[in-house]
Write a structure and sequence with these properties.
Largest sheet: 4 strands, mixed
Helix content: 25-40%
Strand content: 15-25%
Structural class: alpha+beta
Number of domains: 2
Shape: rod-shaped
Order of helices and strands: EHEEEH
Number of strands: 4
Distance between the termini: 55 Å
Length: 94
């Protein structure tokens, strides 16, 4: 199960590498659909000994309803409400 943490610069600098042969996925708690993957490679820089050597950012494409879709949906709802009203009037039920 992926972790959920607030992704900050400090977190990125302090991440340890994943266990040998695995990757760790961390999703951001503030920005939905944004995360990162930490590999098992270690940083070759001696000043960053024991830190993650490869971090990949994972932007997920979140699709929100576009205005055109929202307009079409509301037009469909209005049309169906008008058709129901017309049917009630035609049958004598108001």
């Amino acid at each position: 199960m992926p972790e959920r943490r607030l992704i900050t610069d400090r977190l990125l600098q302090s991440l340890p590498p994943a266990n040998e042969g695995t990757r760790v996925v961390i999703w951001d708690t503030r920005e939905p659909g944004f995360g990162l993957r930490v590999s098992d490679r270690k940083d070759p820089n001696p000043q960053r000994r024991g830190k993650a050597g490869k971090i990949t950012f994972l932007p997920m494409h979140v699709s929100y309803p576009t205005p055109a879709r929202a307009d079409a949906r509301s037009a469909t709802l209005v049309r169906s409400a008008l058709m129901r009203r017309a049917a009630r009037q035609a049958t004598g039920r108001t």
